[in-house]
Amino acid sequence: MKTAAVWFRRDLRLQDHTALSNAMKWAEKNDARLLLFFQMNPHFLSDSIDKRHQYFFQTLYLFMKECESKNIAFHLLSGETDKVFTSLIDNLPEIEMFFFNEDETGYGKKRDEVVMKLIQDKNRKVYTFQDHFLHGAQEVKKQNGEFYKVFTPYYRAWRQLDKSRPLQINLKALAERARRFEKLTADGNRELEVIAGDFEKREDIGEADALKTLKSFTSERLEDYHKKRDLPAVNGTSKLSRHLKTGAISPRTVYHYVSQIEVVQDSGKETFVKELAWRDFYNMVYVQFPNSAVEEADERYHKINWSRNNERLKAWCDGKTGYPIVDAGMRQLNAEGWMHNRLRMITASFLTKDYLLDWRLGEEYFAKKLVDYEPASNIGGWQWAASVGTDAVPYFRVFNPVTQSKRFDPDGEFIRKYVPELKDVDARFIHEPWKMNNDQQKQANCRVGEDYPEPTVEHSEQRKKAIEMFKGL
Ligand code: FAD
Fold first, then answer.
1. How many whole angstroms separate alpha carbon 347 and alpha carbon 273?
2. Would you list the DSSP string of 106-153?
3. Is the torsion defined by CA of 318, 324, 330, 331 positive or negative?
4. Pocket test for ligand 1, best of 239, 372, 390 (most atoms within 8 A of CB)
5. Rounded (5°) CA angle 322-360-113
6. Distance separating alpha carbons of residues 22 and 365, to the nearest angstrom
7. What residues pair up with 223 in beta bridges, in sequence order?
8. Among 56, 131, 308, 402, which is most exposed with the fewest C-beta within 10 angstroms?
9. Atom of ligand 1 nearest to the CA of 245
10. How far is the C-alpha of 318 from the C-alpha of 335, rounded, in Å?
11. How far is Cα of residue 454 from the mean position of the Cα atoms in its chain?
């Protein structure tokens, strides 16, 4: 019987899935069957698995359970990429073609190129689709065919383009086409079960939760999004990034759902859509600068002599810099695997402009901890904060952690939640606890230098050094 295989990767959902939808169309037209699978690289199954991989594999586990409950056969194939594909084609010569959603950047792009060659060398067809972004990198270009470097003109062009509609997939029809292939040993299942089973049970995973999150955000918070999205103590953002990362929801579904919502004031909606465009923008920048994981996009800054001081790096990672808003952000990241956007900007600025540490160290730490880790957005965000990207904050505009704290967490509510040593500190001192005298420290149950660190650097001095460092080039 005619057969096609659909390779799932970071698109763990059954609805609005471009490769799956196209495979279904082909299968129905040709009365063919489908093999759905995920290839599990054994090197991810180590003891030292980090938060983002944990989250991803738990989503995968839940996704497989979801398929099972709908009688949709799904296969987990364990092994190195080339071995899995070779043995798949050798064992099941009836597979005529492969469908998958492409990666435009990084490791995924390189892996896809190897796999496509392997499939074609074995005389099978392969169809790939742009699915992860509202607009792939090649879709938004200047009239002269060049890529944009700056967000505002990019966004103007992006806004004008038609956005593909979500694709409905008939799951009953899919269950009939997606068969179990007995020849394939389900050798990854047990390993995955062990990892997924060991995770603390969490509710913020999977396709159903992604849809629920989208609906509650649009009904409760979308209209005021522009006013509240910068306040870390307020639940003002969508929290959809983790689901966009695993592909539990598609950006098309998010965009079109938000677009059809009736609101009195458009500002919240407009601001939110603009954030979705940032996601596409950073993907395009990464396509344009494929080395940007290790190299500044702005080549004037390749020669910056960044520090790699371990002690400072540790203080930053542990949330012990002595600047409460920075510490609260880092502790949120360590505890939850997610950090509010305003704090990502503040902590990234602090690492690079106050500690003068290499932005790559910060990028790497975020990569390990964030459940929503997207290389393009993370690298883009870090290069923006370090002033070395294509559309970066100018190097002389350095975030002041105290001013930022007073502005975006005025009563210190967020700081008190994540830095309990400061919970009794009066609002007058919560942003600068070192200004308390002895009596005030006693009253606040917080000895600065003992219970909570003294500021590890002096901001105004470090700011001058950072500016000099850039000017010197
Ligand atoms: P919302 O405010 O509800 O935004 C909606 C969606 O828009 C997000 O889910 C995300 O997909 C997209 N988005 C919002 N802001 C940005 C942005 N600045 N850049 C790109 N996309 C954006 N985002 C990631 O998804 N993964 C990362 O690894 C990541 N690393 C970052 C590192 C730094 C240093 C900075 C400054 C930002 C980073 N961001 C990253 C962007 C942003 O902080 C998160 O997308 C956002 O905090 C996620 O929360 P949310 O879903 O509630 O966002």
1. 25
2. HHHHHHHHHHHHHHHHTT-EEEEE--SSSS-GGGS--TTSPPP-SHHH
3. positive
4. 372
5. 150
6. 38
7. none
8. 308
9. 25
10. 11
11. 33
CB contact at 8 A, 6 and 23: yes
Q: Looking only at Cα atoms, what is the longest distance across the chain?
A: 82
Indicate if ligand 1 lies below 6 Å from the C-beta of 348.
Answer: yes
Cα separation, 108 vs 351, in Å, equals 28
Of these residues, 7, 316, 338, 382, which one is catalytic? 382
pTM over cut 0.90? yes
Q: How many residues does the chain have?
A: 473
Q: Tokens 């966004």 appear where?
A: 155
pLDDT one digit per residue (tens) for the chain, 473 residues: 999 999 999 999 999 999 999 999 999 999 999 999 999 987 776 666 788 888 999 999 999 999 999 999 999 998 999 999 999 999 999 999 999 999 999 999 999 999 999 999 999 999 999 999 999 999 999 999 999 999 999 999 999 999 999 999 999 999 999 999 988 876 667 778 777 765 556 789 999 999 999 999 999 999 999 999 999 999 999 999 999 999 999 999 999 999 999 888 899 999 999 999 999 999 999 999 999 999 999 999 999 999 999 999 999 999 999 999 999 999 999 999 999 999 999 999 999 999 999 999 999 999 999 999 999 999 999 999 999 999 989 999 999 999 999 999 999 999 999 999 999 999 999 999 999 999 999 999 999 999 999 999 999 999 999 999 999 88
Q: Which two tokens stand for residue 227?
A: 């006013």
